[in-house]
Design a protein that fits this description.
heterodimer, A: about 325 residues, alpha/beta, Rossmann fold, nine-stranded mixed beta sheet, about 15% strand, B: alpha/beta, 5 domains, seven-stranded mixed beta sheet, 21 strands
Chain lengths: ~325, ~725
């Protein structure tokens, strides 16, 4: 139901926020940390979309990246390790009017939270998920994470990591109901912003893996890619990413990729060098779990009470037997 | 000229027989030959009767009995011998129900099914009961069964209107209920935080009875009162929200299903006159405005966006405008059912004004007789002049949804009817029921269908929401063979030698009038012995342009009750009327883009121009070759188009490639006066004088994406410059 004339007029009164409206204090991340770039891009998104702070919720687990909600002047939930996604799902279910964002690290999501991650992809609830992937546990001072490359020396792998790194993109693309998968790198802010924006506008579970530098524990890990634009493969398409003329001059290693093509997306996702950057897969036709399960019933006091009573009655001992 | 022919021509021209009158067509119970196959409608499967399905999903509100039965057969009858048996029994059931309805039986499909089943099963046929019970279980819908008759259009439209309104009401109610709930939550939260909410009595009431005695509520109240938060619900807001809840709860437009809203009687929206509907609309307007305003304010309140300093004045001023034309469409539409023939001039003008003003009226103008004589010109047929005028005038208003159809085609047009009822604006439905009673035993369905076939009452729709132009808005597509003057049908009969003869006959206005007893005097059946080659079919006669006295006579093939073919000469007056009817139809065709004169003229002009061009080219090809044209100067190969010159920055000045900045804080931590973030949180050099050259060089070195360019030192006295210049070299 819309009452057009007043709403149009009321829109005249709308206030236009600026970046400071979303900045919730000075980040405690190290100087040079890629999290700063992600934070800047997300705050820009909130400002450009004029998201109302009280209608926006940032959920995180544990780790450097999971400090994210502290730095957003919105609602936030700094959760427990590996459980950012289930908390976000609960928020989504109870408050479908909120914009839900999730910040999770490679340890948080791909190790202890891997089970939740797989099912969250399958549930396809409408939320934007950033996987801050710096290939290492930074908060606890350099332990190997599932995405640490083979041979990486850390406190838990002093002789170098033994296994090939887990690829979060191919994993996500392999799960039923995946609906949006993209990859960005923190050192190309324009592309990062475009992808963050596309992920926000996708209705469904938007999974964005962001490769980010850890200047403290892995200062040189991404240097080859950082200094050679040819080592970044930019995926462009009319329905995907489009580069500005300035960026197009720098990033000549480009490939047309239709985000509707799942097979090609899986093939591209499996490459690590050059790093593919762009929207790998997008399918707006996958239904969202919250839409499938929405009862449409108003949660009136009586409704909630009846539900609670029914639930509690299951544990009630009836002296004369239950009628 | 032969005397028989003279007599026939004289009848054609004057309606008078010079030598004794032959038998009148109605005395022989004749009807136009093309209707011969439809003596007993109850033995045929066609769209009627209809089932007005209850609680059906959108689009399924109106169904045909045959369609329902077909789906039941599909679901209940397997594709084998047993399936065949079930199919046969169900089709017999359908016929029995159709016969019951034709005999005046009414009621729901379930009731009629039971009655018909009782009769069929009394025959004691094996497995009949089994077939019927299986089909009954597979029946997808139930509801009132309606045959095509005088009452049908009004019932059908009311049912369709209710379906549309219920869905609209459901959406509105959901919205209102949600608003009421959220507003009540705000009030409850406000109360809980207020002094009253923390009074001992209220605290006592909120604690369950089992442990009530364990608490000292006086102490609890004192304790809680001390910790009351500041900024509880202000009184002005509390009063405003309470008044919103009261307006929303007491509204009478959309009653909650199964109950009366707040004990108040909901408004009625079905009227039998336009004036009464308008009166009701005017009376309810203040309530509509109050409700629309309450909804608008409530939406702001629940989002905590209502700011008294801004919005109070705004809503006070807004008053009437809060409703607006779009706002009106959110409220129920008024269904007005009128008899077009009974309408007086004043009612007519009132209706047009109401439609023109965009009031939410859905008007069904029903006509039962379109062959009455014109009230102003003797001897001219009216063709349902009033309803046609209504429809034509409503189309001219350009914002009114208009649909005209015979009752026989309403089922085919059900989607368009629903679209008209959903259209956010006024709609006019002009319907000919076929139940005027002047066509003897001919069923209203056949009369209505004949009116449409003969173009006497063509079907059309005008949907302003379908697009900007006539091509999108106006449609004649539900008429048979809309591209022709008259639709053509095949007819087969036996001649005197028992040979089968097939031919095609157009169904004209004369065929339709031939069904009507009042016009029997304009037809004269000619005995077979007097048939001659000068008697030609009406459609053929209609296209002839004769200037002198006629040499041929138009005649209409008729069939008697026994199936024998007769021919009747048609009076000149009816031919004149048929031509008039054809002209009216051709005007409609033009509106629908069929044989459009503008388009055809344009086409002819373009074709002529094209022909001329072609001839000129051909002539040029035969003549002397013209000198080769000088080629256009081509771009020199290998020289790219001049690129936009890149912005050259002086190497001496420090700068940052801001768009590439990753906001990582490295430089701002070195000197936050020199390096600052812009509105996108990307670094720029705010003031190169705010720090040393050393800081610029260090920032350039620490920047991980190497976008800081330190330039040349500004202060030649800065210590260690030589070393710094060397370090800065890679970043210049």
């Amino acid at each position: 139901m819309t009452i057009t004339a007043p709403e149009c007029l009321l829109r005249l009164y709308e206030e236009h926020p600026d970046l400071e409206d979303y900045q919730g204090g000075a980040p405690r991340w190290c100087a040079g940390c890629g999290d700063n770039a992600i934070l800047a891009a997300v705050q820009r998104l909130c400002r450009d979309e004029a998201l109302r702070p009280e209608k926006t919720a940032f959920i995180s687990g544990i780790g450097c990246s999971s400090r994210f909600p502290h730095y957003m002047k919105t609602y936030g939930f700094h959760g427990i390790h590996g459980r950012a996604l289930p908390v976000a799902e609960g928020v989504r279910m109870a408050r479908p009017d909120l914009h839900v964002f999730v910040s999770t690290g490679d340890g948080d999501c791909c190790s202890i939270g891997a089970g939740h991650w797989i099912h969250a992809v399958r549930y396809n609830m409408n939320m934007t998920v950033f996987l801050h992937d710096n290939h290492v546990y930074g908060l606890t001072k350099k332990q190997a994470s599932p995405t640490s490359p083979r041979g990486l020396r850390t406190n838990t792998t002093p002789r170098g990591a033994y296994l090939e790194a887990l690829n979060p993109l191919t994993v996500t693309l392999g799960v039923q109901n995946a609906s949006f998968v993209a990859q960005a790198v923190d050192w190309i802010p324009e592309i990062l912003y475009s992808i963050v924006s596309a992920a926000f506008h996708h209705k469904g579970f938007s999974f964005v893996r962001i490769l980010q530098r850890c200047p403290k524990f892995l200062p040189d890990l991404f240097d080859p890619w950082l200094h050679d634009p040819q080592k970044v493969l930019v995926l462009t398409h009319d329905n995907g990413l489009q580069l500005s003329p300035g960026l197009a001059k720098v990033h000549k290693n480009r490939r047309e990729h239709d985000p509707a093509d799942l097979d090609r997306a899986r093939e591209i996702a499996s490459g690590a060098d050059p790093i593919p950057v762009g929207i790998l897969y997008r399918n707006p036709g996958v239904p969202c779990y919250e839409d499938l399960r929405r009862s449409g019933k108003l949660r009136t006091g009586a409704f909630v009470r009846a539900g609670l009573e029914a639930e509690l009655d299951k544990f009630t001992i009836w002296p004369q037997g239950h009628a | 000229m032969h005397s028989e022919l003279q007599a026939q021509l004289a009848f054609h021209l004057t309606g008078v027989w010079s030598a004794g009158r032959p038998e009148a067509s109605d005395a022989l119970e004749l009807r136009p030959a093309l209707l011969a196959a439809y003596r007993n409608l109850s033995r045929l499967r066609y769209d009627f009767p209809l089932v007005l399905a209850r609680n059906a999903p959108h689009g399924g509100a109106v169904q045909s009995l045959s369609g329902l039965m077909d789906r039941a057969i599909e679901d209940a009858a397997p594709r084998d011998g047993e399936g065949e048996r079930i199919r046969g029994h169900v089709l017999r059931m359908e016929q029995a129900i159709r016969a019951l309805v034709a005999a005046g039986g009414g009621g729901s499909l379930a009731t009629l099914w039971d009655t018909a089943a009782g009769r069929l099963e009394s025959s004691g046929e094996d497995l009949l009961a089994d077939s019927l019970s299986r089909a009954r279980a597979a029946l997808k819908a139930d509801g009132e069964v309606l045959d095509c008759g005088k009452a049908m259009p009004a019932r059908l439209f009311e049912h369709a209107w209710r379906t549309v309104q219920e869905s609209k009401a459901r959406r509105f109610r959901e919205d209102i209920d949600r608003l009421i709930l959220r507003l009540s939550d705000i009030l409850a939260a406000g109360l809980a935080l207020s002094e009253e909410g923390r009074s001992p009595e209220r605290l006592r009431a909120e604690v369950g009875a089992a442990h009530r005695e364990a608490f000292d509520f006086e102490a609890m109240s004192r304790l809680l009162a001390g910790s009351l938060p500041k900024g509880t619900l202000p009184e002005s807001r509390r009063r405003r929200i309470a008044s919103l809840v009261s307006v929303l709860e007491s509204q009478r437009f959309f009653p909650a299903p199964g109950e009366r809203a707040g004990g108040v009687e909901p408004y009625a929206f079905v009227f039998e006159s336009c004036a009464a509907a308008l009166r009701a609309f005017r009376e309810r307007r203040p309530a509509m405005i109050a409700l629309a305003q309450a909804v608008a304010v409530a939406r702001l309140e629940v989002e905590n966006e209502y700011v008294e300093s801004k919005h109070d004045a705004f809503f006070e001023e807004f008053g009437e405008n809060v409703l607006g034309p779009k706002g009106v469409t959110l409220f129920p539409d008024y269904l007005v059912r009128i008899g077009a023939a009974d309408m007086q001039a004043a009612g007519h003008a009132g209706l047009m004004e109401a439609l023109g003003a965009g009031l939410p009226l859905k008007v069904l103008a029903q006509t039962d007789d379109i062959l009455d004589e014109s009230p102003v010109r003797d001897g001219q047929l009216a063709f349902g002049a009033r309803s046609r005028q209504l429809a034509a005038m409503a189309i001219a208003l350009s914002e009114v949804y208009v649909l005209q159809s015979s009752a026989s085609n309403l089922f085919q047009l059900r989607e368009r009817i629903l679209r008209g009822l959903e259209y956010p604006g006024p709609a006019l439905f002009s319907v000919f029921s076929g139940a005027g009673g002047a066509c003897g035993e001919l069923a209203p369905y056949l009369v209505a269908a004949a009116a449409m076939e003969s173009r006497a009452f063509p079907a059309f729709s005008y949907d302003p929401s379908a697009g900007e132009d006539w091509a999108s808005r106006f449609s004649l597509e539900n008429n048979p063979r809309a591209d022709l003057d008259w639709p053509v049908h095949a007819i087969a009969y036996e001649d005197d030698e028992h040979q089968r003869i097939s031919e095609e006959l157009a169904f004209t206005l004369v065929d339709f009038v031939g069904c009507d007893r009042r016009y029997a005097k304009h037809f004269a059946t000619i005995p077979r012995a007097m048939w001659n080659e000068r008697m030609i079919a009406v459609p053929e006669y209609l296209v002839r342009e004769t200037k002198g006295p006629p040499e041929k006579v138009p005649c209409l093939p008729l069939v008697g009750r026994d199936g024998t073919l007769h021919r009747a000469i048609v009076g000149e007056k009816l031919i004149r009327e048929a031509r008039r009817c054809r002209e009216a139809w051709r005007s409609l065709q033009e509106l629908a883009g069929i044989h459009n004169s503008h388009a055809e003229r344009l086409l002819a002009r373009e074709r002529k121009a094209w022909e001329e061009q072609r001839t000129a080219h051909a002539a040029a090809a035969l003549g002397p070759q013209p000198a080769a044209e000088a080629p256009a100067p081509a771009a020199a190969p290998g020289v790219p188009a001049q690129a936009e010159p890149e912005e050259e920055r002086p190497r001496d000045e420090p700068y940052i490639e801001t768009p590439r900045c990753t906001s990582c804080n490295e430089c701002t931590q070195i000197n936050d006066k020199m390096f600052v973030y812009d509105s996108n949180k990307q670094a720029t050099i705010a003031n190169p004088e705010a720090g040393t050259y050393r800081q610029l060089v260090e920032a350039a070195e620490s920047c991980q994406v190497s976008i800081i360019h330190p330039g040349r030192p500004r202060n030649p006295a800065e210590p260690g410059l030589d070393e710094l210049i060397k370090r800065a070299e890679p970043f210049l």
